[in-house]
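Why Aldehyde Dehydrogenase? Reviewers of the renewal asked for a concrete example.
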Amino acid sequence: MQAITINILGPVTLPDFPREFHDTMTKFGVFRAFIAGSWIDFGSYMPVKSPINGEVIAQVNKLSAEHVNSAIERLHYSWPSLRAIPAHKRADMLMKVADFIEEYRQLFRDVLVIEGGKPISEAEGEVDSTITRLRMIHQDLGRLLNVGIPGEYGVGTENKYAIVVREPIGVVAAIAPFNYPLFTSMVKIATALLAGDPVIFKPSSYTPITGVLIAKAIEYAGLGNYFAMVTGPGAIVGDAMVTHPLVRAITLTGSTETGLRVMRMAGLKRLQLELGGKAPAIVLEDADLRDAAKKIVTGSLRLSGQRCDAISRVIAMDSIADELINYITKEVSEWVVGDPRDPKVRVGPLIDSNAVERVHSMVDDALMKGGRLIYGGGYWLTYHEPTVIDHVSRKSRLALEETFGPVIPIIRVKSVDEAIEVANEVIYGLDAAVFGRDVGTLWRVARSLEVGEVTINDFPRHGLGLFPFGGVKESGFGREGIGFSVEDVTELKTIVITYK
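Here is what the prediction returned.
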């Protein structure tokens, strides 16, 4: 494998921020933290680098554990006043967040491109999806409705009636990833605020400026007193958040390693964890191979494969593998890799050079264990070329570990049962895809897969959350989605009334 050449389109700088955003930064251009309605400079900073060229583009505040503890206490004291706002009014206030993001749509888009390395079309899609999801927030209110249970159906409770009330749980810690720093963060935050919970939010250290924009949107909507945006190393800021006794629930999207660490520290807090994935795409003998190839490539290469629901292994029947690979290779060749500011580019950089080195080492391991390079394999700094490898060993890292890169490994099998066995032999269980025509076989495979969601004849995508999603095994637990996310940031209280 050899280095590839990437044309960087001039200096990499953040867009100009409108005057309305000037309170988010110091006179020296350092982005402040946001604590319960106030923009604060704590005097210690850390750099933010763009994955486009690895250069520093900004400085953000680097908070200490003491700063985080103080923020949590302020949010806890604000909780009664947030609970006093009727839920429908909280929903209306969150609609203003959507209005704000729409007004500054281009700014949000450009920040996603510069600090996250997203291709322009991907960044636009994330901004628009966030706006749409927020404008659907009233649909979540249905899960907050009380339930009545008459006691006449039980012995000894004939003269009783129970009202089951769903109440806010308290301060929620929201920890977000770098890959969807706007959408994923905003859904976690909006769900908790809708339920009546104050939120302390830690954006990824790779994409903290998006977190600053989110805080500004929350402030604009009138919910700033119930929200904090804190930046700094996960081992300091994140640990302080998940161990503080006043934090009652934690919602995290991140790696399995991070999730296990949070579980060990969190104690009896409510947890919603969406962790790593290793989504298989099982291609059966009767599949439409041209259609399957197109969807597999899209599901593998979007966001350079840096998605927890990305297809990261193709399990193909040996009888159709050669034809499938021909279609896949043709599709991959149409995905341009390069500077994400170029509208023609569909595969931008990985988040940093360490990510490229890790992906490259996984590719090397697969080739050493008998894999055959079909396409790509080149890399440079933060960029990795879309790569297709055939005859990947089930024992290789590429078959077993989360890839988070633009690599399509092909694992050949002889039977449907072997395909199911291969799919289930990893520690992850988030998503899977199955391509075929026979309904009986598709149903059997779907029911046999140890994952939280199976997509038939398409690639996995969580989208707006209309369908609940989440993992099993070491991909986490809890479910996110419209009407489902609120369950993990609320508690049930049963009130029993005796009327005779």
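The chain has two domains: 19-275+478-492, 279-464. This is the kind of structural detail the renewal will allow us to pursue systematically.
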